[in-house]
Write a structure and sequence with these properties.
This protein has about 200 residues and is α/β, with parallel strands linked by helices. It contains six helices and seven strands. It is globular, with a radius of gyration of 16 Å.
């Protein structure tokens, strides 16, 4: 894989063997070239690591990192530290994505020089589109702190990409509280607070 990586896709995994095949295959079928896939196994006690290693053997863009269980935040911070992409995306191991997702997000990020590029999503069990957040104007670049309505949308950090040097410049990381839930809330608050250029792409 070349060094000009457009998006580093981080997949934090813990006991995900029921879902991980569908998740990783959806990432492998992305239409965007030059991506790396970093799977962080957080001390799984099932066959998650074995499944990931089988994917790694056959797909050079996949890198598997195995570590002791330390939580979601620590896993993603580790992924940040070793990622090489211009932008960073996150796919949770029980989710799957449409094959054009990262091409859409990246093309808009480059076109508008975005810190954050975000798209809509469905809940796979109910197919509910994120249409109930119509109070946020679509396809318009803005600074989040100038439009505080953004802070009322669902965090859903996995439907965005984040410019890596934007995260580094503002020292934005996840809290590393073992066993804690809702680690995405503080992260999303920080990225929205510091971002200068943001868009909701629909």
């Amino acid at each position: 894989m070349g060094e000009n990586i457009k998006v580093s896709i981080l997949v934090p995994c813990y006991n995900s063997e029921k879902y991980i095949d569908k998740c990783i295959n959806s990432i492998l079928h992305q239409t965007l070239d030059d991506v790396e896939i970093i799977c962080i196994n957080d001390g799984s006690t099932d066959n998650t690591l074995k499944v990931l290693q089988n994917f790694e053997k056959n797909n050079p863009q996949i890198r598997v990192v195995d570590k002791k269980n330390s939580g979601y935040g620590a896993s993603l911070n580790l992924g940040f530290s070793i990622s090489k992409g211009e932008y960073i995306g996150i796919v949770e191991s029980d989710d799957f994505i449409e094959n054009t997702m990262y091409e859409l997000l990246y093309d808009n990020a480059k076109k508008y020089d975005l810190d954050i590029s975000r798209c809509c999503f469905n809940y796979s069990d109910e197919c509910i589109k994120e249409e109930h957040f119509d109070f946020i104007e679509k396809n318009k670049v803005f600074r989040p702190v100038d439009n505080l309505s953004i802070f009322f949308q669902m965090p859903s950090l996995w439907c965005s990409i984040y410019k890596k040097n934007f995260l580094e410049k503002n020292n934005i990381k996840f809290l590393e509280t073992p066993g804690a839930s809702y680690q995405d809330l503080s992260f999303c608050f920080k990225v929205y607070f510091w971002a200068e250029r943001y868009i909701n792409v629909y």
